[in-house]
Amino acid sequence: MTDPWVALEPGADPAERVRVLRRAHETFAVAGTVPQPVRSVVADSWRRSARAGVGPEGTANVELTDGDLGVYRAQHPLARVMPLIRELMGTFAADGEHLLAVCDAQGRLLWVEGHPATRRKAGRMNFVPGARWAESAVGTNAPGTAVAVDRPVQVFAAEHFIRRVQPWTCAAAPVHDPRTGRVLGAVDITGGDGLAHPHSLGFVQAVARAAESQLALLAPEQTSVDGPELTALGRDEAQLCVDGRKMRLSRRHSEILVLLARHPEGLTGDELLCALYEDESVPPVTLRAELARLRRLLGPGLLASRPYRLTLPVESDVAIVERRLEGGAVTGAATAYTGPLLPGSQAPAVVRLRARLADGLRTALIARRDPDLLADWAHAPWGEDDLDVWRALAAMRPTAPVRSRLAALESELAAPGTWSRGRGR
C-alpha cells in the first residue's frame, strides 16, 4: 500500500479485508499482538486503546446534553465555521447516506448531521452530539484518532477497536487554530464501506483546511499595540508571534524566552546559566552564543542585555493559565492548558515551572469536582497515568471504562518496585 493512512489499496476486496481484520482484532484481544496486514497507524492506536483500559465491548458515554451541550457548542471556536462545513459536506453526507460530524480537541462530538436513517442507526452506538469519542475512551475511530495523532486518518470496518463500531467506516481530519496551531477538533465523515477510498480522506482534509482558512479570516485583526505572543504548552519547541510573523524556536531558545517572559525585570548571565543548565561546568560563553543567535532570530530591539531582558511585554500561554488559576477560573485555565510546558526540556527552572503549573491545575480540577473537566485531564496524554485524577473521576462518574482504568493503575501502583507515576507532568 502506497499510503499507510488510506484504509484500502486500489483493487482490494473489502469483504475479504473485513474478515482478515476481524481475525487480527480477535488475536489482539486474546494475545495482545497485532498480525499483518493491520496498518501501523491502526496497530499503534489499538495498543494505545488497550493501555487506556478500553474494552472491545465498550460504548461511548454521553457527557453533554440539552442546555449544557448548547452552551458549550455556541462558545466553541468551530461553531463559527459550521455553516461552511455544512455547505461543503452536508449534501455529500445526505445523498450518500453518510454522516458529517465535528468533535472538539478531546474527541467529544459537538455536531452529528446527515441522513436521518443513518443518524438513527448511529445513535444506537451513541454516535451523537455530546458523546465522548476520544481514542482513550472508545478506542480506534477516525475523529478520536485524528485528534490523538494530529493528522488526517481513515478507519475501515474492523479496524475500529470497539466491536459495535466495526460495521462503520469513517475518515477525519484535525482542524487547527490558525494563530496558535493548536488542535481545535476534527471534521469527520462516517458511513459504510464505500468511504474506504482515498477520496474520502482527501475530502475531509480539504474541508479542514477550508475551515482553518475561514477561521483566519474571521479572527480579529491584530492591532499595532498587540505585543509578542509565546506558545509553549504541549510542545517541545515554542512558537513566538511578533508583528504577524510566526517563529518556531529551538528548544534552548524556547527555554530562554519562557524564562525571560516570566522575568520582565531581566536575569543576569549567572541566573540564566543556573536556570538553563544542570551541569555547573557549562561556561558562560556557551550561553552568550545562544543569546546572540536568539537576538539575530528575533531581530533588532527585542532582546536587551545587562541584565538579559525582553524590551516588550510578551504574553504567554503559561501566564494565561496562571492568571486564570489565580482568579479561580478553573474551566478557563483547563481550556488554555494544552499540555505540559516544553515537555522535553530538562532545564532546571523549566522543570520546576512545568511541575508547578501542572500540579496547580490538577489540584484545582480535583477540588472543583467537575466530571467533564476531570475526564478531559484523565483522557489527555499527560493525565492517563494520573492516579489521583482517575480516583476523583471514578467517584464522580463510575463508568466501566473509568473503573477499569483506575483498577489497572492501582494494580500497577501495588506491584513490587513500582513508584507513583507522572501525575500529569
Automatic annotation (TrEMBL):
UniProt xrefs under SUPFAM superfamilies: C-terminal effector domain of the bipartite response regulators (SSF46894)
Domain OmpR/PhoB-type: 244-310
Presence of keyword Nucleus: no
Keywords carried by this UniProt record: DNA-binding, Transcription, Transcription regulation
Record's keyword annotation contains Nucleotide-binding: no
InterPro entries reported for this sequence: GAF, GAF-like_dom_sf, OmpR/PhoB-type_DNA-bd, Sig_transdc_resp-reg_C-effctor, WH-like_DNA-bd_sf
Gene3D superfamilies referenced in this protein's UniProt entry, alphabetically: 3.30.450.40, Winged helix-like DNA-binding domain superfamily/Winged helix DNA-binding domain
Residue ranges that the Swiss-Prot or TrEMBL entry lists as coiled coil: none
Protein known as: GAF domain-containing protein
